[in-house]
Automatic annotation (TrEMBL):
This is GNAT family N-acetyltransferase. InterPro entries: Acyl_CoA_acyltransferase, GNAT_dom. PROSITE patterns: GNAT. Pfam families: Acetyltransf_1.
Amino acid sequence: MMKEGLKVQTTPVRDEDESFLFALFTSTREQELQAWGWDEAMQQHFLQMQWRAQCSSYSVQFPQAEHLLLCHDQQPVGRVILNHSQESLHLVDITLHPNFRGQGIGTRYLLTLQQEGSESGQSVILNVRTDNPARRLYERLGFASTGEDELYVRMAWHSKQK
């Protein structure tokens, strides 16, 4: 449920945000790592390796993408990677810290992105893991599946002005 008057801001990522971004990344992997039974040192090594791989992959695949902090009440609560093209706004990644999920922050950001797409005549596209509960949110906001593979569903929202 989205809170009335909820304010969500974005701000460009700076070098000094690296520790927050790494902590955010690790927060999304905690359950997975606990299931493996690794000690703390092994977990940290694995997480650092995965973090560097993700950063490298995104920078190669989307060199012009915007890297943004998602903020609520001036506090960073997530991150967004957004790649602009002539025909679409590609939401490469949106991650909210688990403590801030379910409060309408992601919904508010997506509605803002859809408004931007509507004003510019662009579609909003994204990929979501097939098992990610956020898929229901995307569907509720009018995103439709455009294809899938074993891991991901490609989804798009099209402006009514197109």
